[in-house]
Amino acid sequence: MTDAKTNVNRSPRGNITRRGVVKALAAAAGAAAATGVMPGTMRYIQAQTSAPIRIGFQLHRTGIGATYGRWYERVTSAAVKLINQGGGIGGRELQIVTEDDGTDPKRGAEVVAKFATQHKVDFVFGTLFSHVVVGSSPAAAEHKMPYFVVSEGYHVASGKMNRYVFQPGITDVRAQVSSMAPWVTKNLGKKVTMIFPDYAFGHDHRDYFSAALAKQGGSIAALIPIPATETSFTKHFARIPADTEVLYHVMVGPGVLTFVKEMGEHFGSRRPQVFGFIDSLEGVDIASPGLEFLDGSYFWEAMPRYAGKDQTAFDKFYRQAVGVNDSGAAVSDPKDVSTYSHMFGCWETLYVIKAAVEKSGYKSPTAQDKKALVEAVESMTDFAESNQHPQGAKKFVGRIHQAFGHQNISKVNGKRLDVVHRTSIQDGMYEPEADYTKMPL
Q: Where are the alpha helices (DSSP H) in 86-159?
């Protein structure tokens, strides 16, 4: 991806004309206004001959994460375009080098190694699925490659990764469920059956929602893990105890629409309260036939899919930049529903990387510069709500390389989702159990 170079008019003798300079400065000011960058900060114009910053994009282009990958790629392209229009990173053009990891842990590790040894990128970012993050992170340590994931599992904050792995642009499951458990028990019920994917991401839901529920005086009626490759779910619904007050579901992958439809067929109108993570409907139109039974149920959302009455100017800016309408679908194709509650993490993570590069004075992938960059990220504490962080303000805890932010609970009203509760950042914060800053680099 390349930046549109600033064109400067020249006289017939090759000298720069005054008119050309004025036009160039006007173009620069226009780009600054579009990105929220103030005039005087656009150093990319003075550094066109500098080597670009190259970021390896570990993309789930195929496999069970392909729906997310497609939207992660769109958001990344939009963010890179704006960053380059605003002067790049530290006055240098930002380039993205993409490799498909097939949503596979083994292949993910190979991709990280390829970025380091063949593409020789400065950093790697973009990974979503937790099992791929877990499988890839050792390669990041081996190659001393700063690795910025856009996942949600507790694997980063737990301390089980290494000092090169960061999750600064999206919150983790432990924080999410801890902040929402009080609302669920107060408004829906205290006896909960959980249905979750049977790998690290789902296990985080199982472990940390169960713990948060117990703190509120609730209890688990049943735990129902689902294989990641499952395509039919009816047999699992038969395992839900009759005295369940709340059915808590989170499902991912290409079978999500089937999962929700079969849940409706199983329960009909006689269902418990239903609280789901939007993962079970990411990329799926709520108005799809067979989903009518979801009316009146609730979902967690990180970033609300539907633009509501409290929509911020930052959300408007972000939607326009990535080409998403007020219903969370592509402007170019209203049937193409986005993964709106996750993909913002790519946008925000790229801006964190930009800030870290500029703060640390990073110039090249040397051991000294990588050390400075890692320490710069670890020193960060707050990200203000802005065009760069449209999901909302966040606190970053450098000891555990994890961001904390707001969560939303939305209700299905007919054929849309409306936010009924927004948590505070503090609601989801917990005492760190690790300290990456003590690990050697």
A: 105-114, 130-142
